[in-house]
From TrEMBL:
Catalyzes the attachment of serine to tRNA(Ser). Is also able to aminoacylate tRNA(Sec) with serine, to form the misacylated tRNA L-seryl-tRNA(Sec), which will be further converted into selenocysteinyl-tRNA(Sec). It comes from Pseudohongiella nitratireducens. Keywords: Aminoacyl-tRNA synthetase, ATP-binding, Coiled coil, Cytoplasm, Ligase, Nucleotide-binding, Protein biosynthesis. This is Serine--tRNA ligase. Pfam families: Seryl_tRNA_N (PF02403), tRNA-synt_2b (PF00587). The lineage of its organism: Bacteria, Pseudomonadati, Pseudomonadota, Gammaproteobacteria, Pseudomonadales. Belongs to the class-II aminoacyl-tRNA synthetase family. Type-1 seryl-tRNA synthetase subfamily. Gene3D superfamilies: Bira Bifunctional Protein, Domain 2, Serine-tRNA synthetase, tRNA binding domain.
Length: 427
RNA sequence: GGAGGGGUGGCAGAGCGGUUGAAUGCACCGGUCUUGAAAACCGGCGUAGGCUAAUAACCUACCCAGGGUUCGAAUCCCUGCCCCUCCGCCA
């Protein structure tokens, strides 16, 4: 949520910022909603103040043993007037809130305008895509080929068990998948200073509201049937960021850095027909997520280091990638700035997203009321929140298989994984 | 699943339907005293919204959440959520 005061203090910044996302804001109607809301709030509070004064008077009169009948008569219609004002105030508040809560974050000043990913800007590349002197296979072919213990990567089995966009892995493939999780968590906790957390994989709607998935993007989520209205998490961002919902932390505790592995569940509504083959786009996938809560003045540098932490994983895994600055229209609604990491996939001969690192500034924190106490003012102030994938496990597995493939069908894995694979680095 | 108890400020813990945003203690901040510290004493000490030049004053709301009764609710009623104890079941 944006600061509602922005509407009065700097409407131009609001309008121009959202324009970068391709949103043309009807400033006049929004301002009128805001004025209505404040007008009715003032009217309601005026009546409440009157009621309090009268009630106090009655109390005193009664205590003094006086006749309160005339006083009661004087307030007879106050209740009705107050109820009417309350109703109008609530209505005006809802009308404003509906619109306001739906507004995405304002992109930072140097975020390029643009409608979709075609207008993202490449910042840099790392590594050189390998040239193969044989026809490369994609990860599906490579994964399904190992028939020693049945298929190592078995999409048909998953379809039988559940449906499309799921996978079953066996043997060394399942082990490699697990190894990647361990490796990444170890790197982030031991090398990058993150604290590991374990969290619920189901959350309530308050949490989804806090990070911005609700109320607008419910179609992307799996909602559970049952008496509790829980949702499967679409990313660890939701439970981990909400750890600080409604909290006020001490300045010395900052920055707070959490690393968390969870499965992620996404309905992928609206992406029918996209990436239907293989593990690129699944309803269920594993991810190691990095989440930071920082001093509001330090979130820009925090995004740089968080991105570097994700890049370090790719570099240690020897996977070529490029770094993309997302344009306004391609960023998630809550983000003020997003940097994507895209890994090279030989079978597709292109770079594909494997990590998305965002600075949300105070947008999520305001929704969640996640704050720190500023020693200079003694007052609670909003934190800045950030997160990034470090990395998406399924896509990392895909990248390793495809980039490590050999002419004879073997897959050679990077040296760093050896300790996690019982000394082996080959599939 | 069954039976009972409870949710008040950072913590502990009072609170008859009426001047209670809420006693008291602890913690915390400032001051006096002290060479310094401790102790003692004095003062301060919640959050959000509105109004405003103001992070001043003032107004409003908030004692788990949402409804209700009343001129007036932390206090009475209903619903929900959460916590605790006992029994059953269980990884």
């Amino acid at each position: 949520m944006l600061d509602p005061r922005l509407l009065r203090s700097d409407p131009d910044q609001l309008q121009q910022g959202l324009a970068k996302r391709g949103i043309s804001l009807d400033l006049a109607s929004l301002q009128s909603l805001d004025e209505k809301r404040r007008h009715w709030q003032q009217e309601m509070e005026r009546l409440q103040s009157e009621r309090n004064a009268q009630a106090k008077k009655i109390g005193k009169a009664k205590a003094a043993g006086e006749d309160v009948a005339p006083l009661l008569a004087a307030v007879s219609d106050l209740g009705d007037r107050l109820d009417a004002a309350k109703a109008s105030a609530a209505e005006a508040q809802d009308a404003f809130q509906d619109t306001w809560l739906g507004l995405p974050n304002i992109p930072q000043s140097d975020v390029p305008a643009g409608e979709n990913e075609s207008e993202n800007v490449e910042i840099r590349r790392w590594g050189t895509p390998k040239t193969f002197d044989f026809d490369v296979e994609d990860h599906v072919t490579l994964g399904e080929r190992d028939a020693r213990h049945g298929m190592a990567m078995d999409f048909a089995a998953a379809t039988k068990l559940t449906g499309s966009r799921f996978v079953v892995m066996r043997g060394q493939m399942a082990r490699l998948h697990r190894a990647l999780i361990q490796f990444m968590l170890d790197e982030h906790t031991l090398q990058h200073g993150y604290e590991e957390v374990y969290v619920p994989y189901m959350v309530n709607d308050d949490s989804l509201m806090g990070t911005g998935q609700l109320p607008k993007f419910s179609e992307d989520l799996f909602k559970l049937e049952g008496e509790k209205p829980y949702y499967l998490i679409p990313t660890a961002e939701v439970p981990v960021t909400n750890l600080l919902r409604g909290e006020i932390v001490a300045a010395e505790q900052l920055p707070i850095q959490y690393a968390c592995h969870t499965p992620c569940f996404r309905s992928e509504a609206g992406s029918h027909g996209r990436d239907t083959r293989g593990m690129i786009r699944q309803h269920q996938f594993e991810k190691v997520e990095l989440v930071q809560f920082v001093h509001p003045k330090k979130s820009d540098e925090a995004l740089v280091s968080l991105t570097q932490h994700a890049e370090n994983i790719l570099q240690k895994l020897e996977l070529p990638y490029r770094v993309m600055q997302l344009c306004g229209g391609d960023m998630g609604a809550s983000a003020a700035r997003t940097i994507d990491l895209e890994v090279w996939l030989p079978s597709q001969e292109c770079y594909r997203e494997i990590s998305s690192c965002s600075n949300f500034e105070d947008y999520q924190a305001r929704r969640m009321q996640a704050r720190w106490r500023n020693p200079e003012t003694g007052k609670p102030e909003l934190l800045h929140t950030l997160n990034g994938s470090g990395l998406a496990i399924g896509r990392t597995l895909v990248a390793l298989l495809e980039n490590g493939q050999q002419a004879d069908g073997r897959v050679v894995l990077p040296e760093v994984l050896r300790p996690y694979l019982g000394g082996q680095i080959e599939l």
